[in-house]
Amino acid sequence: MKKTMLVVLVGLLSFMLAACGGDKEKANSSESSSNYPEKPITVVAPSGAGGGWDLTARALAKVLSDTKLVEETLTVENKPGGGGAVYMAEFATQEKNNPYKLMISSPPILINHEKKEGNSPYGYGDTTPLAQLTKDYGAIVVKSDSPFNDLQSALDAIKADPTKVTVAGGSSPGSMDHLVAVLPAFKSDIDPKSVKYVSYDGGGEAIAALLGGNADLIATDASAIGEYVKSGKVKVLAVSSPERLEGDLADVPTFKEAGIDADFTIWRGVFGPKELKEEELAFWDKTLQKLSESEEWNNEVKSNGWESEFKNSTDFKKFLDEQNVVIQDLLTALGMQK
């Protein structure tokens, strides 16, 4: 009887030890999964250097590092092509389960998916939206020695002979810069399809084209043009904000002040891969919220001429759903809807 009891006790003890070991393994597994991030993170700007995506990516990486909100190394990569569409395809397929690759984007992630020409099969639904960080506006810009001194004179020239006015932007036809460029024409009863638009990979290249005499005017991000205004190299004819901006562009009229009943907001946000795990998303929700509240981030926002506008992952996804409808309506009006 005693022997039988001993066997039972030994068996029970072994079972309990095994169960404890299993629980320990589960705890270790859970602890391991919550240790994200554990290696360097790359923030991709899907454009060339000098434009809004590039500046946002570099500001984000800098502040996350400087504030120690992310202990791991952060690097920025430029992946230009197709107004963001080329890297979008890579991000949605090759990086879909890589939590160490993030991407900066803005309205083109919607536009490229919804437009008819050069349509991208991938959109924000192939990502995990993490947060909206800022908002910016479009600017219609000419060289300092341009004969155009206001938006109406440029529109009059396009209306007289659109083949003689080259308009450029840092995104592909039908994308954000193109929409900003043709919106005043559309609102002035000029066929937007008649506007001679040339695309470049990023705002920096579009500005270079303008300064090099390869474009008569460009549509670009208002925040990216301040240094060129200060140097006297360019004139800004109008901005797409609902009210006048501050700083270097304080004297520039809005579209509405220039007689164009329209405005256009350029939001910017950060996206993770589609298959981001729950604990990884929770990390970015917490970290990016803290980033948006930090003095360092708000100094970066101010120095770049942006406006802070934070939305967490849930609110950002809802906002994108709503914005997608707006983009579809605008493209339809321009005859560019897929």
Report what the structure shows.
Keywords: Signal. Pfam families: TctC. Belongs to the UPF0065 (bug) family. With 338 residues, the protein is of the alpha/beta class. It has two domains: 41-136 and 266-333, Bordetella uptake gene, domain 1 (D-Maltodextrin-Binding Protein, domain 2, 3-Layer(aba) Sandwich); 137-249, D-Maltodextrin-Binding Protein, domain 2 (3-Layer(aba) Sandwich), CATH 3.40.190. The protein has eleven helices and ten strands. The chain has helices spanning 2-33, 52-66, 85-93, 108-114, 151-160, 176-187, 203-211, 226-230, 278-293, 295-303, 313-333; strands at residues 41-45, 74-78, 101-105, 127-143, 166-169, 196-199, 217-221, 234-239, 265-273, 307-311. Strands 1, 2, 3, 4, 5, 6, 7, 8, 9 and 10 form a ten-stranded mixed beta sheet that branches. α2 links the parallel β1 and β2 (74-78). α2 (52-66) packs antiparallel against α10. Mean pLDDT is 88; it is low at 1-32.
List keywords for this structure.
disordered N terminus, 19% strand, D-Maltodextrin-Binding Protein, domain 2, BUG, Bug_dom1, 2 domains, 10-stranded mixed β-sheet, signal, 338 residues, globular, alpha/beta, Tripartite tricarboxylate transporter substrate-binding protein, 10 strands
Nutshell version of this structure?
Helices cover 43% and strands 19% of the residues.
Question: Helix and strand layout, with pairings?
Answer:
Layout: H1 2-33, E1 41-45, H2 52-66, E2 74-78, H3 85-93, E3 101-105, H4 108-114, E4 127-143, H5 151-160, E5 166-169, H6 176-187, E6 196-199, H7 203-211, E7 217-221, H8 226-230, E8 234-239, E9 265-273, H9 278-293, H10 295-303, E10 307-311, H11 313-333
Parallel strand pairs: 1-2, 1-3, 5-6, 5-7
Antiparallel strand pairs: 3-9, 4-7, 4-8, 4-9, 4-10
